[in-house]
């Protein structure tokens, strides 16, 4: 996406960056397509276990997470979602209950919303066979939208095509996450909330050398990466919350 107020020189630069991104996306997709299925399965399990054991995950009460799509070769989140949505048994610690928001793509103009769900049954497959929440529940009630939340969100678990250890993230080109994350950062600032932690889940082969991923002014960096071999904190916020 380009800004409508850019001058010709800036637009040429942006066009060049978008072209570089398209080329890089094509390379990463080919690499992911050739990834050994047993390695993928091993890393899916290890990455999710690393998230579940992380202090910043355990302490999070409200979080956003993507619904993984195997066709897109995203890091699996099914175990994470199951754990998040699990209700404590009778007499269990209700403080451990986490509130979960998941994404729904609204249109082709980078408009995505995050809705609160309480069960996997709240999800339905869209035209691309990607699971999403319907805007209303089974009783016809509107689901709570993240941007109308009355409390801060602690954590975003993010997908992507590629990342580097300086926090750069290469998405799929739609700008959906960058747009949503920017809006929520603005909301948190307006309400004087602590900014959420942006954590990306990454296969080992998705982590590229630094500065290979080109940047535009609209790109939102991540605070940490979670890989099969461990957690890579990037920002001071990530380092601080790892100590919890």
Beta-strand content: 15-25%
Shape by Cα distribution = globular
**Rounded radius of gyration (Å):** 18 Å
Tally of discrete structural domains = 1
Total beta-strand segments: 11
State the distance separating the first and last CA atoms: 38 Å
Helix share of residues?
25-40%
Total helices: the number is 6
Quickly name the level 1 CATH class. Alpha Beta
Please identify, by name, the CATH architecture. Answer: 3-Layer(aba) Sandwich
Largest sheet geometry: 7 strands, mixed
Unreliable stretches covering 5 or more consecutive residues: none
Task: Explain what you see.
The chain has 244 residues and is α/β, with parallel strands linked by helices. It has one domain (8-241): Rossmann fold (3-Layer(aba) Sandwich). Helices cover 31% and strands 18% of the residues. It contains 6 helices and 11 strands. It has helices spanning 8-33, 37-53, 55-58, 78-85, 176-190, 236-241; strands at residues 62-65, 99-105, 112-117, 123-125, 131-133, 155-158, 162-163, 169-170, 197-201, 224-227, 230-233. The chain is globular, with a radius of gyration of 18 Å. The protein starts with 7 loop residues before the first helix and ends with a helix. The model has no long low-confidence stretch (mean pLDDT 92).
Keywords:
EC 6.3.3.2, 244 residues, Rossmann fold, globular, 6 helices, seven-stranded mixed sheet, alpha/beta
């Amino acid at each position: 996406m380009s800004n409508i107020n850019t001058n010709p020189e800036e637009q040429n630069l942006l066009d060049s960056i978008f072209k570089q991104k398209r080329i890089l996306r094509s390379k990463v997709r080919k690499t992911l397509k050739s990834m050994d299925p047993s390695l993928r399965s091993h890393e899916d399990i290890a990455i999710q276990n690393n998230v579940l054991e992380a202090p910043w995950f355990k302490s999070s009460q409200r979080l956003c997470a993507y619904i993984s799509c195997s066709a897109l070769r995203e890091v699996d989140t099914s175990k994470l979602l199951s754990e998040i949505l699990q209700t404590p048994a009778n007499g269990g610690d209700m403080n451990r209950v986490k509130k979960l928001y998941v994404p729904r793509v609204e249109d082709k103009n980078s408009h995505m919303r995050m809705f609160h769900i309480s069960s996997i049954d709240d999800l339905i497959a869209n035209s691309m066979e990607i699971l999403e929440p319907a805007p209303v529940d089974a009783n016809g009630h509107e689901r709570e939208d993240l941007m109308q939340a009355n409390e801060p969100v602690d954590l975003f678990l993010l997908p992507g095509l590629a990342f580097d250890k300086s926090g750069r993230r290469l998405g799929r080109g739609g700008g959906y996450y960058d747009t949503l994350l920017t809006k929520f950062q603005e909301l948190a600032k307006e309400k004087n909330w602590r900014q959420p932690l942006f954590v990306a889940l990454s296969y080992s082969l998705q982590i590229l050398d630094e500065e290979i991923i080109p940047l535009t002014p609209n790109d939102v960096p991540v605070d940490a990466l979670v890989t099969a071999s461990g957690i890579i904190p990037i920002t001071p916020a990530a380092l601080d919350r790892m100590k919890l």
